[in-house]
Design a protein that fits this description.
binds flavin-adenine dinucleotide; four-stranded mixed sheet; 3 domains; Butyryl-CoA Dehydrogenase, subunit A, domain 2; 395 residues; Butyryl-CoA Dehydrogenase, subunit A, domain 3
Amino acid sequence: MTIPAVNTDAFRREVRDFLADALTTELRKAAELGFGIHREAGAAWHRKLYERGWVAPEWPVAFGGTGWSATQQHIFAEECALAGTPMLMPFGLGMVGPVIYTFGTEAQQAQHLPGILDGSVWWCQGYSEPGSGSDLASLNTTAKRDGDEYVVNGQKIWTTNAHKADWIFALVRTNADGKPQQGISFLLIDMQTPGIEVKPIVSIDGLHHLNEVYFTDVRVPVSNRIGEENKGWTYAKFLLGHERTGIAGVAGSKRAVTALKAISQQENAGALAEDQAFMSRLAVTEVKLAALAQTEARMLAALEAGNNPGDASSTLKILGTEIQQELQTLRVEAVQYYALPFELSQIRGESNANPPGPDYAVSAVADYNFGRAASIYGGSNEIQRNVIAKAVLGL
Ligand SMILES: Cc1cc2nc3c(=O)[nH]c(=O)nc-3n(C[C@H](O)[C@H](O)[C@H](O)COP(=O)(O)OP(=O)(O)OC[C@H]3O[C@@H](n4cnc5c(N)ncnc54)[C@H](O)[C@@H]3O)c2cc1C
């Protein structure tokens, strides 16, 4: 693929102009809830990007991508993060979408890709089960063939957004013999199918992102299977490569660095900005982030050349999440005792009352607490180190 040279300054201006117009104060406020964003607000932002043709920069042009170079994608992500745009749910655009356009049938592509692109259909990810997280291949949710349908029974857990989603992509066991990896299939399941029950798990930040999903005799057409039966592990790993690249959150961390610099000018009448210990930790984190941004740019270039990020995305995941956690720690330390009030209605964006401290202190502890999960989801960082040792370094 030949990518035309672009004037990056002009492109950056174009993105900024768009954001200045499209990102309303309301949407900016809704963005602060992260994953907890209400579906309407998330969908409203998604729609604006879709209408501009910018919702899926990483997708091939033939399927609705932008055709941008790696640099343009980078600029776009950076400008969105710096402006504080709402997060786009990753489960459709960043996970199952690429699986469907890479391995799906034409019928599956026609059925699912338009709804992912325009944001009208929300997805969730049914991988983890109680007892099958890091050791995902041991999963026990079964799918037994009955004519043109599978009958699915079992339980998923930690399913982000299952209560908001229309569809779930699930790994199921279709063969119990042989190596566990060779008996898994990848199914697309309508959440309205009889026999699916979603139960909430409220996490330590006080928000409801997570769920348990139970399947009891859920009938799924065989035509909803991606690729071949028992080859689901291949598609699942392809998807995880995309997921881990996204979790690095480089642009979001740049925004957090900028915010912390501003906070340091305000806290204790600017005395924090003179605090050598605090500011040098912030500087070290910023340098690590600059290095990570370069690694991410290399990976984007590889993607652009048609390569899957594969196992190297584990590096991005580890470093990106460590940086996010350090920045969350610095924010709690920066706001000091204003981190102590834990007002759920304020954290959930449901209160009009003034918080006791500055606005930027309200969710400092909630974000810090939930941020611990970033080194667990998408495959824990310990597992990523194992992946790097084996698959990247060949140890
Ligand atoms: C906030 C959040 C959102 C999530 N969203 C989703 C979702 O939408 N869909 C989904 O399917 N899943 C989701 N998950 C699940 C997530 O993928 C799993 O939690 C993760 O894979 C770890 O699995 P586990 O919880 O079973 O922990 P375990 O696998 O039991 O691990 C426990 C600890 O042991 C360590 N460990 C385990 N095995 C090894 C090993 N071989 N070597 C070294 N250390 C090891 C782990 O690193 C971890 O510290 C989410 C999790 C969280 C916290």
